[in-house]
Amino acid sequence: MFTMFSQFYKKNLHVVSRFNHTWTLPIGHKTPINIYNCVTRKNESFIVKNKEAVTWYTCGPTVYDSSHVGHASCYVRLDIIQRILKHHFGLNLVTCMNITDIDDKIIKKAYEMKTDFRTLASTYEKEFWSDLAMLKIPMPDLVLSVTEHVPIIIDFIQQLEDKEVAYKAQDNSVYFDITKSPHKPGKLQNITDSPPEASNPFKKSKADFALWKSVKNENEPSFDSPWGKGRPGWHIECSALASLMFGSNIDIHAGGLDLRFPHHENEEIQSSSFHSNNQWVNYWIHTGHLHLKDSVKMSKSLKNTVSIQDMLKQTKTDVFRMACVKSRYSSAMEYSPDLLQTSSNTLDLYKNLFRSILDVKKGLIKPSLNNQVINELLTKSTIEIHEAFCDDFNTPQVLKCLDSVASTVNSIIYSSATSSTSKDIYLLLALNNLVSDTLNLFGIDLSDLSDSVKNEDFSEFMDILVGFRQDVRQIGLTNKDKNLLSLCDRLRDDLKKTGLIVKDYGKISSWNK
């Protein structure tokens, strides 16, 4: 009887087992999204406990140096997913991030620079937020620094000690005892796929990990604790701070793929032990690595990084965001001039689409519009975009759909007879809105292509210049004067280099930014 009940219970609660690790489908609001689950190794239905308050925790930076493009790709991709969840699926997302402002790397760098570790960490934290602002990534709703919450972390460790899953070793550090915990490594990632850790003679087991690290010398920055002076271990920071804000169960926990093991793995183990449950995080989201063209991962340890500030001197934020959209968030991304150029070309495709539709709106182009064809394209594209977002946030598929819209609309505008009236263009404008709104979900705003021009004097000047060119060009066409036509073409090409686009429609010319 018990066996039958157990089977019924598991079937209805969707409990998935893999190598003695279980994952249970949450109870709450079912979204139409299927999201990759690193525990079950397949896509699962995305269910949130409460659509009006969805909890999201992101591992923040260790602030000892400038952030690089690898960090940018991670945080931009996560920002795009957050925007999709908020603005496409209507979820009220509450986001939290930690700042690791005490760490071996921070202490070492501060010693080398002969400055206080707090000053160093504060400097690079400010730079981090500045970098994110330039990437158009808003600050999380909650930001928690480690040094401001050491008592909370100490209490977390003490409770693990009370549960007899932590011990103080002879080096006065405190370690998590993996042999005493019901939760074992390998839930998020196969351990055979993971790099071995350096041996530590003070640990009872190789898989044990530090919760509290004792000081190595008297001059080292430290905090008082029941175990002596020291500082928190890396993994315990996120567990304590995320639990402080979101409690015993979190909807989403996110970070780069390199954090899945050991950081996230150990977070899940110690947090489940702390809360006495089997599932601290319902869904883990991991972004793929950013590689250089030779397939080498970009990292500070390899000393092959490009800072975010240096990258943005070479390209625009929208171009980089488009580069992030072009691949699945979980896939590796190859950073290269070719990628940036391709992304810039994609943006130009959409800019040209908006300019063409704007010219139709102004009456400069009067194509013959088949409303049935346009309506079918609008309906089909809306459905396909939604389905792509439901498929684990498949942004490359969304771009494929937008590219098809741009190609089809341009074909309609430039390949048909001139016979439309203003009432025929509303579906065309609806397509314009669909593409624009979708790009806004990616944090890409091309609204500067609208009718309004902020500098009216400049607008008047351009109207005069383009009008004069139009008259000269008409004389050239009438007299078949190649020299005049060549001068008109050269002026058009020179203006294009400054971002000003001049287009000719028979005897009429127009311009756009």
TrEMBL record:
EC category name: ligase
Residue stretches making up the tRNA synthetases class I catalytic domain: 50-343
EC number: 6.1.1.16
Keywords (A to Z) from UniProt: Aminoacyl-tRNA synthetase, ATP-binding, Ligase, Metal-binding, Nucleotide-binding, Protein biosynthesis, Zinc
Domain Cysteinyl-tRNA synthetase class Ia DALR: from-to ranges: 386-444
Molecular function GO labels: ATP binding; cysteine-tRNA ligase activity; metal ion binding
Reaction catalysis annotation: S-sulfanyl-L-cysteine + L-cysteine = S-disulfanyl-L-cysteine + L-alanine; tRNA(Cys) + L-cysteine + ATP = L-cysteinyl-tRNA(Cys) + AMP + diphosphate; S-sulfanyl-L-cysteine + tRNA(Cys) + ATP = (S)-sulfanyl-L-cysteinyl-tRNA(Cys) + AMP + diphosphate; S-disulfanyl-L-cysteine + tRNA(Cys) + ATP = (S)-disulfanyl-L-cysteinyl-tRNA(Cys) + AMP + diphosphate
Signal peptide extent: none
UniProt xrefs under InterPro entries: Cys-tRNA-ligase (IPR015803), Cys-tRNA-synt_Ia_DALR (IPR015273), Cys-tRNA/MSH_ligase (IPR024909), Rossmann-like_a/b/a_fold (IPR014729), tRNA-synt_1_cat_dom (IPR032678), tRNAsynth_Ia_anticodon-bd (IPR009080)
Gene Ontology CC terms: cytoplasm
Keyword set includes Zinc: yes
GO BP annotation list: translation
Cofactor(s) recorded in Swiss-Prot or TrEMBL: Zn(2+)
The keyword Cell cycle is assigned to this record: no
Superkingdom field: Eukaryota
Function: Mitochondrial cysteine-specific aminoacyl-tRNA synthetase that catalyzes the ATP-dependent ligation of cysteine to tRNA(Cys). In addition to its role as an aminoacyl-tRNA synthetase, has also cysteine persulfide synthase activity. Produces reactive persulfide species such as cysteine persulfide (CysSSH) from substrate cysteine and mediate direct incorporation of CysSSH into proteins during translations, resulting in protein persulfides and polysulfides. CysSSHs behave as potent antioxidants and cellular protectants.
Family: Belongs to the class-I aminoacyl-tRNA synthetase family.
NCBIfam families attached to this UniProt entry: cysS (TIGR00435)
Protein name: cysteine--tRNA ligase
Organism: Hypothenemus hampei
